Structures are given as structure tokens and as C-alpha cells.
Amino acid sequence: MREVPLAFGLLINGARLATQLPMAEAPPDSIEWRRDYAPVPYRRALAEQETRNSAIAAREARELIWLLEHPPVYTAGTSAAAAELLDPRFEIVETGRGGRYTYHGPGQRVGYVLLDLAKRGRDVRCFVHALEGWVIATLADFGVESWRAEGRIGIWTRDSDGGEAKIGAIGVRIRRWVTMHGFSVNLAPDLAHFSGIVPCGIAEYGVTSLAKMGIEVAPQEWDRALERRAGGFFAALGRTECPA
């Protein structure tokens, strides 16, 4: 099967986790969850994803959700334009995913989602829509409203100055109907590091983080909230019709 690289922008904003979160449907027991709290080099994570992708497609390994962060790195998608690399101060890695340039670094939580869409509807658009919805729902549990914007890659929120800004990114690659890559959410990264690129090719809007908005969320706290919302994400994958 031909590989399908896709990219969709996602940025989220947050608030402190509520004392009582809404109950959510439990995710499937067949999914392996992996959490790393020390930075994982990007090339190593990419190689591990590629190996796991093949194993899942061959029914030799379980599907995987991997939550982690990276040392500073710029990653280039299949549509990355040279003019959008403004200052190559960090390592640059070509990823094979869709989209353009993205920054990853400490303080940014990354979620790699490796699922077998052959048994989950074979609908890439629904997968991406569900992935966006998963992050949006998790942000809402921190009291943060975020949204998709028609015609603009990403998920957006109101920055501390009242303007619209991006707080996360989504980039997806499909190989043998098994997904790779996933999403990133800016908890408390150094936002100056984004100035070396035009993030996701959108120069008209800025990038924000929960910390910039005055919201402190630890990686472990984010991961727990995200896992709590995972059941809704998997339920959305099983829908017969995906929202436009």
C-alpha cells in the first residue's frame, strides 16, 4: 500500500486540572502505553516508530501510544520549504510525515500514536479528527477552550494578549494502514526556539504555551488527563460517519 503523509496543526491551551474530571470510557486493554520523562533523541524515537509500525502491521506487536519529549530539534515534513527554515540552530531531521517544519523540545509533550487503521475503519480523516478532538477535550479539562480553524493547520486558542495563537501540532504518516507520529502540546517550552522556523508554514499567527498563559501543568499531570480522555478518542474512531 502507498504511504500517506498527512499533517494537521494542533495547539492547545490549559488550566489547572479540575478536582473532579468527567468520567470517560476506558481505552482498549490491547493498547500499550509508554511514558518517558527524560528527553528522547528524535532520531531514536523515529527509528523505534518505524520498527514498531512494521511489527504492528505484521500482527507481531501491540498498538502503541508513546508520550515523551525531545531535546531541541527541527523536524521537516514532506511539504517543508527551504525558505521556512530561518535559523538552523538545532538539528534538522526529515521525518517522512506530512506537513512542514515543526519544533520539538523540552517543555513540549509529544504523543506518538501507532494504531492499526485496518481494524479501525480505514478512515484517515476520521483518525485525524479524533486525534484533534482528544487533545481539545483534554485541554478543556484544564479549563482551556481550543478549536480547529478552517483553512489553517492546527488547533488554536486565545493567547495571553487576546490574539489567536497555536498551541500544538499534529503530523501523521500512514504506512501499511498503521499510523505513525501524532501530536505535540506546548506545556512550557522555550517559545524563542520556534523563531528559527515558520511553524507549520503559517507566519501570520504566533505560537503560545500553557506557561505563557499562566497555567502550570506538569508532564505527568498532562499524561494522566490525556489517558483519562483516551476512551472518547477510541470511540470516535469507531463512528460510521466522521464530522466534516
Give an overview in words:
The structure is a single chain. With 244 residues, the protein is an alpha+beta fold. The chain contains 4 helices and 13 strands. The chain has helices at residues 42-57, 124-140, 219-228, 230-237; strands spanning 4-9, 32-35, 64-68, 73-76, 91-94, 101-104, 108-114, 147-149, 152-158, 164-166, 168-175, 178-186, 206-207. Strands 1-11-12-7-3-2 form a 6-stranded mixed sheet, sandwiched between helices. Strands 8-9-10-13 form a 4-stranded mixed sheet, with no helix packed on it. A 3-stranded mixed sheet has the order 5-4-6, with no helix packed on it. Strand 2 (32-35), helix 1 and strand 3 (64-68) form a beta-alpha-beta unit. It is globular and about 45 Å long.
* Total number of beta strands: 13
Pattern of helices and strands? EEHEEEEEHEEEEEEHH
CA gyration radius, whole angstroms: 17 Å
- The level of helicity is 10-25%
CA-to-CA gap between the ends? 25 Å
Secondary structure class reads alpha+beta
- What topology, given as strand order, has the largest sheet? 1-11-12-7-3-2
Biggest beta sheet attributes:
6 strands, mixed
The share of residues in extended strands comes to 25-35%
Number of H- or I-type helical stretches: 4
Which shape, going by the Cα principal axes? globular
Mean pLDDT: 87
Unreliable spans are: 1-24
